[in-house]
Amino acid sequence: MVAISVLDLSPIVEGGSAAQALQNSLDLARHAERLGYRRYWVAEHHNMPGIASAATAVVIGHIAGGTNSIRVGAGGIMLPNHAPLVVAEQFGTLAALYPGRIDLGLGRAPGTDPATTAALRRTREGSQDDFPRDVVELQAYLGPAQPGRVQAVPGVGSNVPLWILGSSLFGAQLAAILGLPFAFASHFAPQMLMPALEMYRDNFKPSAQCEAPYVMLGFNVCAADSEAEARYLRTSMQQAFLNLRLGRPTPLPPPVENLRDTLEPGARQLLDQQSSRGAVGTIATVREAFDAFVAETGADEVMITAGIYDHAARLRSYELAASLVDSAAAA
Prior knowledge:
Layout: E1 3-8, H1 18-35, E2 39-42, H2 56-65, E3 71-78, H3 84-97, E4 102-107, H4 114-120, H5 131-142, E5 162-166, H6 169-178, E6 182-184, H7 193-203, E7 215-223, H8 227-245, H9 265-274, E8 278-281, H10 283-297, E9 301-305, H11 311-321, H12 324-330
């Protein structure tokens, strides 16, 4: 049966605050737990006025501490920004506080612009080229203690489950080599999805963590009680996406009527590409697109993301989408 999970960026809405965004994230996590979602992940981004999850490990503690059973994790930690030992200590601490509930997804990109990357890590030691080595180092810190090696305390022996995140073939290849589950960002980078899945599955080597390939895929969902309402709500995320592509990230704007009519053809094409792995509309419309996506990709799990300005409407979208797990089971 295909599981469904939540990816949250803790969106700061226009006119809102980071404090309210983080409280909304906890409210959504409790909602998702009641509805039967498997995991709740937050993502690391920096210098983004519309995202409140920059201190990702802290936010995970906030979410895990306010829920009871749902798995909580990073989707992901951008490893070039951090020393592996520090990440091992942070997530070892989380695993000690919330045993059996913490996931650690690892990304290769810095998750921000070059100036902010320099501000995050003031030496030139860390880079994307070090990512495979850093993943293995982090894995060792979370594994059994070894004489003569620096230990992550807490962390050593915790075996916090690692995931490789990706939007290209690189992540797929590394996840396959290391025998780790693979989460592909198809919700914003759909072009390489199918080649990445083929590479991962064809080259997968079983490991102590994962005996067989396991794929989780991002999927945009904006569900509402009418098609018109869903399309209207979706314009918030569309505006934010275009602003980001233009290099001017903003808080999540309120929805607007007839957005496409105001856009140049190039902007419309960008939106069409970005939304090709997602669904907007009533739950019947969303279910049809979701089932087709699962059938095409063979996903083991789908991580739903929804950039909706109004918090109540966002809760309603995830409430409607909760029925997708039954749909996938019946397919």
